[in-house]
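Section 5: illustrative case.
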């Protein structure tokens, strides 16, 4: 037990969390979720269950004079058979809006995944603690951003001074839905995912529903977006539909309309931005499915390969070019009666020139440097004066 400080233990409650849509009470503490219980009950896919429990964009937010902060957690990590161990998830400390520290929790549960056999084994492990010391002895707003790629059960918050929930910052709430790229894919830290970077630059509060492998136009996701209070909404649609080989063009258009209809049921006039896929050369003209290539996994290299036949586009199979054309058509059609609906071509965030300079390391996901570029571009295109998410006149970003 750490005896260096006179710790005050504070149970983690929903009042201390931002970016989570549900909090599950466990034997040890709480588990933040990014989909509510009703949506989770309608899901049977293990990939989505894992992704939504990984707290991308979720952070503790409190006010305190504490100079030392410790967060006790039980992480659930992933190991892949035949591959080097993955690095521990990262916790980012933000004090009064500025980066102030970084840490990780070792140990925890481990899910051992054998991708060749299609199996997963859960191995229980011990809880751990991430600590931050040397904070200024003044009243301050503190945020601890949880790992974007590691399920994190929160046991207790310990400080050397009392804490209270952070004050409402009065910023607009941006609700974003997308794929693993939006969840954070290969970003190096939770505040380094492109939505987190864009939210910081845009001066908004982020709720990130980027769900790895699971931006699939699920009705329960649309209802979650419908029922979540938000001032701004964006939907990044396409890459998972292609690489999962989920549907044909005949089904895709009506599914997009239905998804937008549901969101609009709860947010009839909220600025709504539809974002088409970033450039992904393996899927621009080749349909899915997409499968991993394990040939370099022992050296820590994993690549993805598109397995479809480009000739199948004639029978309605989807590629990224087909999806961009269809999304652009749908938004143009609907915008005639919905002036708050907008379209952004994902290649304006990451396109041909970017691909030549910063190729996708595994042919599917951007790295940390590319996340920064995407986040900066999204902020410039969406949040500045001519963008669909521009602040009202007289409101500074």
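Designed sequence:
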């Amino acid at each position: 037990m750490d005896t260096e400080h006179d710790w005050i233990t504070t149970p983690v409650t929903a009042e201390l969390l931002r970016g989570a849509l549900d909090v599950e009470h466990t034997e040890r503490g709480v588990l933040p979720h990014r989909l509510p219980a009703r949506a989770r009950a309608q899901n049977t896919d293990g990939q989505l269950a894992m992704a939504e429990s990984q707290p991308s964009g979720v952070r503790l937010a409190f006010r305190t004079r504490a100079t030392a902060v410790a967060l006790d957690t039980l992480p659930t990590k992933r190991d892949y058979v035949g591959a080097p161990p993955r690095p521990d998830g990262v916790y980012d400390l933000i004090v009064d809006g500025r980066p102030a520290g970084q840490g990780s929790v070792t140990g925890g549960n481990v899910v051992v995944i054998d991708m060749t056999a299609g199996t997963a084994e859960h191995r229980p492990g011990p809880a751990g603690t991430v600590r931050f010391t040397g904070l200024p002895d003044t009243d301050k707003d503190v945020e601890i951003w949880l790992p974007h790629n590691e399920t994190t059960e929160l046991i207790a918050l310990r400080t050397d001074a009392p804490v209270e929930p952070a004050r409402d910052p009065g910023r607009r709430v941006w609700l974003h839905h997308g794929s693993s790229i939006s969840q954070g894919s290969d970003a190096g830290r939770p505040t380094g995912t492109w939505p987190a970077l864009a939210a910081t630059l845009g001066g908004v509060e982020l709720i990130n529903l980027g769900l790895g492998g699971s931006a699939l136009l699920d009705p329960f996701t649309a209802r979650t977006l419908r029922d979540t209070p938000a001032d701004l909404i964006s939907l990044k649609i396409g890459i998972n539909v292609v690489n999962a080989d989920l549907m044909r063009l005949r089904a895709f258009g009506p599914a997009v309309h239905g998804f937008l209809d549901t969101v609009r049921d709860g947010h009839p006039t909220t600025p709504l931005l539809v974002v088409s896929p970033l450039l992904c050369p393996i899927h621009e003209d080749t349909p899915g499915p997409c499968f991993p290539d394990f040939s370099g996994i022992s050296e820590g290299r994993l690549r993805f390969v598109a397995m479809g036949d480009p000739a199948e586009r004639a029978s309605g199979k989807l590629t990224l070019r087909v999806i961009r054309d269809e999304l652009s058509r749908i938004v143009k059609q609907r915008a005639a009666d919905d002036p708050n609906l907008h379209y952004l071509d994902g290649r304006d965030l990451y396109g041909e020139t970017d691909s030549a300079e910063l190729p996708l390391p595994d042919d599917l996901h951007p790295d940390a440097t590319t996340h920064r570029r995407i986040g900066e571009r999204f902020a410039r295109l969406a949040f500045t004066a001519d963008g669909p998410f521009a602040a009202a006149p007289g409101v500074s970003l």
